[in-house]
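G.,

No rush on this.
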Amino acid sequence: MVFFSRPFPARQSSSIPGRRRRSGLRPTAGRRASLAAARLGPRARLAVMARLSGGDLSISLPAADDVLAEIVSDGTNYTVSGTGLSATQFPIASVTGVIYVGGGAGLDSQTFRVLAGEPLANPIGVSSDIETTELRAGINATVAGNVNIDSPSLIIGPGSPVSVSTSATNSFVFVNGAMELRNDASFMSGSGLISLGSVSGTGGQALFLGTLNQSGSVVINGNVSLPSGFMVTAAAAFPIFFNGDTNSISLPQFDNTGILQIGKAGGTSTFSGGLSATRASGVSLAGVIETVDAPLTLGGVSIRADTTLRSGSGTITTGAVSDGVSSRTLTLGSLTQTCAVTRGGSVTSDALATAAGDFGVSLLGVSNAI
């Protein structure tokens, strides 16, 4: 009997058209995250997210334009909501650290809003990716940490006046962007620094700086525009520095007893309702310092750059005046000056000039070196 062996078919490729052969490698963590995000759907990927981790409350705005996140405190819970996120509560007692708010870089109209309610009891950090921060309630940080709002725009109000404060030693308050007052605002930091960007308000808003226990410096790095508004500083030993080119305040009340620095070389600072700064340990001036037909009354003055004092029909009165060791010119009055200028202390200046106006000048110091 003859046996015929059945021929084996030729070996076929394991490749199947339209299908890749498995390599046995697993996807990377980044790839897995991308796949997971794809399965979530577009709405979930664009939703505001909030979570509590290690005592810190993190609020994340997604990588999309026109996104809003909101937080409100009732004194017991923080409630966070926003685009794609329904109201989610976090017990305040569980938030033992900082509230962090971040967004997507290079996006437009991302907004973080603190709704009217009880003040937030925790320090807060808002990244510069959040275009606008709105405070309709205050921040009274009783937990150690800083208040750091890095948004390009900060809006105070509308609604009730807003207070921002830290209580921990050396904790600072930092506002980097342009602050618009739609209601009164107070900033307090004890021994910590208060650093503000520009400040503006179109109504009769007031800006209050410091408390009776304030010792940390107050620095305003941008221009101040409160042409119908007010500024009040607490009667405490802390310095204030105006570093903007142009300042306009209707009626300031400088009660601080530390140094008061106003103006910048080539700039103009206008106090339309008058300026009185006699409690400060020293007043440092630069540029044009003026009132609009209202008294301009200063204590001891040092000039950091060429300086002009003018007040129209208002009197100008100062204590001793010094320009240090540099060559600087102090100019008194303007073409429209009609009221007298009185120097109650000694004048030490490289140059003293008076404008060609109809006003008198009295130098009452014991010794003058000009």
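When you get to it, here's the other one too:
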Amino acid sequence: MRTIAPVILALLLAAPGCQKTAAPKKQDAPSASPMTPAAMRPARDRPAPRRARTTPRPEPPMPSPPVAIPSALDLPLAKDVKPLTLKKAKKLPYLKGSVAQVVAHARKHCTTQWYGVYLQSRKLGWGEMTCGVKTLDGQEVLYEKIELYARIKSFGGTEIMRMRGETRFAATGKGELLYLRLDAESGKERQTVTVTKKDDGWHSRRTYRSPTTRKKPVVKVLKQVRTTLANGERAYAVALAAGTLAAGAKHRYLSFDDDELKDQDNALQVLATGTRRLRGVPVRIHKIETLSLHDKVRGVGLHDARGDLLEGTFQGIMRIKREEKATAKKMDKQAVDFGLGLVIQAKLPDVSDPAKVNLMRIR
């Protein structure tokens, strides 16, 4: 299961009018669907295709100012610490943890946590995360569950989006992924993804349906899944709790992408470590930067001494804040307008084809 920030991003990209797919290697002609802006303009008025950009793409923005991190808890960057770059992040060593330590950490610290999700200062949803260790079918597993809810206004309509997910990893041996399930709802659209470990690999099944469409299930067998408890997101949380990641420490770690059904590389860096007072109690704080090498999404978060997220941002826009259950589920009376303020940059001046969109910004 990905951390809550990228999951929220995936949830919001399911909103009407938002599409995130990899940019093609070659520039094809714009799609001429009757509903696209390109098709609605006369051919003589359409801009001529431009040559592919040869200048390097900009690095994902470092949130500045970090609007999601309160000044009472925020930490200045440690000396000589600079934001990660994609080029250097790809060369970082992988984090190597211990399955036994991850499971022991989960037994001691796993609990249910609630988060409020904000777009700048407007609340658009909430998230619930829980984890634990239990025995299923005679095998001990470490499980994680997540539920996300968002209510947004997009292009004149209000959309309710909900996502529920669960992952299970073996609590012994290599800590392999055993099971994953994701149920996503956006309006009247429904999608389900399951991945189950069997003797010949990981069997995946994806279903999709809407009031007008019911697609046949897509079934695949994945021969390899490298994401484990020892090299995934829980491994770096355990390293933070153990104090083995000092300021300036940089590593790569793996996460399993439940959309593309494959392992994805991520990078992390400890920006600073210090002590702040939370409700009058001294709290050890770790300021962590994460960078998805696939989605190019940068996040900055404040983690407590157990390695759990207190508050953070990603791309300097989306805000995630740990809250009490009642506070987290208290929504604004009006849905947040998500459709307005979207700026989509693509290789072509015409963005009628979602496959050509390679960067989305929210202003």
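The longest strand covers residues 262-278. Confidence is low (pLDDT under 50) at residues 16-47, 63-68, 340-363.

Enjoy the weekend,
O.
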